[in-house]
Design brief:
There is one protein chain. With about 280 residues, this protein is mostly beta strands. Helix content is about 5%, strand content about 45%. It has one domain (about 1-284): Beta-galactosidase, Chain A, domain 5 (Distorted Sandwich). The strands form five sheets. Strands 8, 9, 10, 11, 12, 15, 16, 17, 18 and 22 form a ten-stranded antiparallel β-sheet that branches. A hairpin with a 2-residue loop joins strand 9 (about 90-95) and strand 10 (about 100-110). The radius of gyration is 18 Å and the shape is globular.
């Protein structure tokens, strides 16, 4: 199932993905107003990266990220622990320039037992300046579970997993990353990794020109940022950055990722203005 969302994005159900990729729905491509694609799927370096998706590494041992699992003192190892996200086709509405996708999903382990459900809402709006997108996933486990990451298994700094945006292509050192923290804006991959702040920007020099992806989170529900600009480019809020995160059975838990895509570089004041636009879209 492939669905077009306005003129700027496509949504796929992921049902045809191989089991070791943790099949799941994803967005790709997502474009700037000028048509530049700022997502990537099935890249050679990480075949399990699929555009924008809900990619949680470890839910009570079940892998929803795809690929190999980190095993302490052993390294990355392919295990038969991959889960799957599936559901009925989503509903799509469009009104006043805003396209809204809603979908109810089941997260099941390799034994086909459902661990949790997800209610997903994606909002898209396109202006002359930017493509705006907000994603909210409400996860409800059937019983108490622990969410983990490679960091919680012993690999320091590898606390990735949650809502994740894979940016393409790999263009070497031509990506600048910044995060707005409570102590000011920090710049650079090492400074951004694990930083806590409302927004993160990735600015790239592409053949088509300079483009920027601004990622953001609600100010009252911030997670540390996982960000990579070397080896590959991608980022997202880290659900289990340095410690296991418990989710209570029967209680909903929201994951958020907002984005603005532009055909230019932006300064922090501009990023703040876009953040307010995303906040309005998310709450509309």
């Amino acid at each position: 199932m492939d669905l077009t969302l306005g003129d700027v994005a496509e949504y796929h159900d992921g049902a045809d993905l191989a089991a070791e990729l943790s099949p799941r729905p994803y967005l790709h491509p997502v474009r700037t107003p000028g048509g530049v694609v700022l997502t990537e799927t099935y890249p050679a370096d990480h075949r399990h990266h699929w555009g924008v998706s809900a990619a949680v590494v470890d839910v009570d041992g079940v892998m929803y990220w795809g690929g190999k699992s980190y095993v302490d003192a052993q390294g990355y190892t392919m295990l038969a622990n991959h889960g799957r996200q599936s559901g009925e086709p989503p509903s799509i509405t469009a009104e006043d320039g805003v396209t809204v996708l809603r979908q109810h999903l089941s997260w099941t382990g390799p034994d086909s037992v459902e661990q949790l459900t997800e209610d997903r809402e994606i909002r898209l709006a396109a202006t002359d300046e930017a493509t705006l997108l907000t994603w909210r996933s409400t996860l409800t486990p059937h019983q108490d579970v622990q969410v983990g990451s490679p960091a919680t298994r012993g690999r320091t700094g590898a606390g990735y997993g949650g809502l994740f945006w894979r940016v393409g292509p790999d263009i070497g050192d031509a990506t600048e990353v910044r995060v707005s923290t409570a102590d000011g804006v920090v710049t650079g991959e090492q400074e951004a990794l694990g930083a806590v702040g409302r927004w993160l920007t990735l600015t790239q020099r592409r053949p088509e020109g300079v483009v920027t992806l601004l990622l953001a989170q609600p100010a009252d529900d911030l997670l540390p940022w996982f960000a990579r600009t070397s080896g590959y480019v991608g980022a997202g809020p880290a659900l289990a950055w340095d410690a296991l995160r418990p989710l209570r059975g029967g209680q909903p838990h929201d994951l958020h990722l907002w984005a603005a895509l532009l055909d230019t570089s932006i300064d922090p004041d501009h990023a703040d203005r876009l953040y307010r636009d995303l906040e309005t879209l998310a709450r509309s």
